[in-house]
């Protein structure tokens, strides 16, 4: 799994360094932070060619926890690398025994935000996210592991070395769990399971060096 994720983030770091090293006068400000939030909406999508059915079931509510670190450049561009974790189980799942966390996902990501000043201390942020997610479940869910794409926008308030902010995040999952088989009569069928688009509401606290 590390063999898959390492080239992705090595490329992101190299691209960032190459882009901003071209400006020798750039002002670099490192930061670290924590993220806490919850899912606003999300669905688990399934389809069966055997039964001829297609369904979308809401994901249960789940807290989201994350950490990140990065750099703000010229008070305009913010690049970070981080990790977040949350539950992704189906709401009111009869097989969940009341648990929210039968299916969980951890995501290693790199994120870019463009900072637009509103006042001296308040700013609007907008940007995108690229990451690799790894699912954890009692059953084999490795086929769900894969790249995620995302976008986010929010507000950030800065005071001295600290800042607080809030963001609305959109997450698109690229991979799906797939099962194929052939019946005795030669007919082929396929069942698929995929995490649909998610919307997350996040709050963050950062310390700027």
Distance between the termini: 33 Å
Helix content: under 10%
User: What does the overall shape look like?
Assistant: elongated
CATH architecture: Beta Barrel
Q: Rounded to an integer, what's the Rg over CA atoms?
A: 20 Å
* Count of individual domains: 1
Layout of strands and helices, then pairs:
Layout: H1 2-20, E1 28-48, E2 53-58, E3 63-73, E4 77-87, E5 103-117, E6 122-137, E7 146-159, E8 162-173, E9 177-182, E10 188-208
Antiparallel strand pairs: 1-2, 1-3, 1-10, 3-4, 4-5, 5-6, 6-7, 7-8, 8-10, 9-10
Structure description:
The protein is mostly beta strands and 209 residues long. Helices cover 9% and strands 64% of the residues. The protein has one helix at 2-20; strands at residues 28-48, 53-58, 63-73, 77-87, 103-117, 122-137, 146-159, 162-173, 177-182, 188-208. It has an 8-stranded antiparallel β-barrel. A hairpin with a 4-residue loop joins strand 5 (103-117) and strand 6 (122-137). It is elongated. Mean pLDDT is 87; it is low at 96-101.
Quick tags:
Porin; 10 strands; 64% strand
Write a brief structural summary.
Helices cover 9% and strands 64% of the residues.
